[in-house]
Amino acid sequence: MDTASYPAPIDKLLSYGDAGEVGENPKDWSQYLELGLGPEHIPDLIRMATDEELRWAESNSLEVWAPIHAWRALGALRAEAAIEPLLSLFKDIEENDDEWAMEELPEVYGMIGPAAIPALERYIDDTSHPTWPRVTARQCLEEIAKRHPESRDDCVAILTRQLERFEENDDELNAFLISSLVHLKALEAAPVMEQAFAADRVETFIMGDWDDVQVELGLKSEEEVREQRRSQAVASNVLSNISAEVPTSVPSSSYYRQTSQRSRADHKKSKIKMAKHSRKKNRRRK
């Protein structure tokens, strides 16, 4: 591993420490600039952030954390030159379950700002990319919209256009698109969300069902939804009693669609990954 090619002060990142203990909160990423890092170091920081030898170095080494420190510094520097190179790391989210990239690159792009929107739109539009990298690109757009309110409408429009393809998208991608639109209070996208739910093309593990989303958007009250579900439960019990007298071997359309699209094992893996994503995100915000 050629670590000697990194000049000072970038070489300090090679021994800066465990990224889970040093600078994990994005609010603290300005500390990297205190090392003397500036715009003139952006090319070498990009090289370090995408250095495959460093990224997959020995897990007990300090060098393995250097790429994470480098992309944090790029975020702190608002480095627009890093927009395209960092997209190359998205593939590892799918191929190597890289949770660091999935969690932190949206923060980096959020700091870089609206200049990253066109590249992220192209990425999420490209169906040759797997689902989880596209889910991450979606989170990047959400973070940009939150940090730069003037870009909110552009980001919402992109997310809505992507959701309009709900029949082509994976259910998980649709769920995360809806999650971002809800977080951005995108009432204008409610009709498309409703269509996706009506078509049974949304993984409800993320945001719940259409009623839950309407509550989040302020379109329904929690009490209204509770009363509606009580009524549905009563009706369901009545139908169950009737159907118990008439056995049938025909599977439900929901079950048939799910099992024909992917194996149960893949579905379970997706849920585990989504749960880990949600838990880590909640921890970071406390």
Characterization of this structure:
This protein has about 290 residues and is mainly α. The chain folds into 2 domains: about 1-75, no CATH class; about 95-235. About 60% of the residues lie in helices and about 0% in strands. It has 16 helices and no strands. The protein has helices at about 40-50, 50-55, 65-75, 85, 90-95, 100-110, 115-125, 130-145, 150-165, 170-185, 190-200, 205, 210-215, 220-245, 255-260, 265-285. The model is unreliable at about 250-270 and about 280-285 (pLDDT under 50).
Q: What's this model, at a glance?
A:
By secondary structure, the protein is mainly α.
- The helix-strand sequence is HHHHHHHHHHHHHHHH
| Rg (C-alpha, Å) | 22 Å
Overall shape: it is elongated
Structural domain tally: 2
Q: What's the total helix number?
A: 16
List keywords for this structure.
disordered C terminus, 286 residues, mainly alpha, single chain
